[in-house]
Fold:
Amino acid sequence: MISRVVKETDIKDLRRYLERSKNIVITCHVSPDGDAIGSSLAFMHVLTSIGKTVNVITPDLPPRNLSFLPGARSILPFTRYAETGTGLFNKADLIICLDFNDIKRVDKMADTLSASPAPKVLIDHHLNPGDFADLTISHPEMSSTCILLFRILCRLELYGKINRKAAECIYTGMMTDTGNFTYNSNDPDLYVVISELIKKGINKDRLYQSICNTYSANRIRLNGYAVYQKMQLFPEHQAAMITLTKDDLKEFDYEKGDTESLVNVPLSIPDITYSIFFRDDGDYIKVSARSKGEFAVNRICEKYFNGGGHKNAAGGEFSGTLEEAVSLFLSILDENDNYLPGKQIKDK
Ligand code: 5GP
Ligand code: MN
Structure:
């Protein structure tokens, strides 16, 4: 048995929303990751099996390495199908928002989502959820939206409707949001759920192979280049920084998702506590940050890079040049020192 975390009133309210609806749209955050896609598709499979019509609309294209997931081909990326997507949002009688805490996280789809008359349910594990939904089930202590969804499905008495396909999607989010069970992964319940998912027929070894070991030669070369040529270490600050310019991306035929776990690489150096990655995406500088232990990178992303996220994994978008982003980061190294393990906090 796993512990009970979701409030009974939330379950009751969610049950009522589901009972009253037939046409459901499920959506998640822009640049969807394994947890966003996994939770969306898993919920789609379960709701379809109880007779609902379900469409999954993502703000932009899902990453290619997740296209093997059951149901992934039915996903409608809004950037590609804005008109159809808008129609579906408008005629939905329920919108389920998964794995994001703020309407801004759906990017250019925000206005359409807000304008839809359908009630909105948010199920998420990010800190500080906004109040755009009619029902918010927010559990930042959960390592992934997928494990939160598993708990919710059990409480809705839909455990029996989790088939192998849904189980594969749930496992994907649990795995990717914990770095393959290497962080936020000491909760014993995680392993009880994995055991249940294996009983549903998933092959966890094969899922790992499909999600993590499907890299193109360009991706491997780009990551190798980034680490060799573009990684800077600041050992006195326990910090690391990697930058990639537009030209770098062009040279290696960059595709979305190609730098997915690059920011984690410097953290394997024992003396590095946090790592930041700046990628020039043209419209803005995409910022990704990761850390170990108590050092909170969401503070840095919120304060300086127009973003947020979790303590050990955060990101943002910087509107300026790559050089400006780098100078800003260099200028806050001293301030960040105050938050390093064993350092006294002077500036909050
Ligand atoms: P990634 O570095 O993989 O893009 O993002 C890591 C985490 O940081 C995400 O799961 C999300 O919680 C958060 N994050 C990334 N980009 C943004 C952003 O632009 N705004 C906010 N608020 N959070 C972000
Ligand atoms: Mn997540």
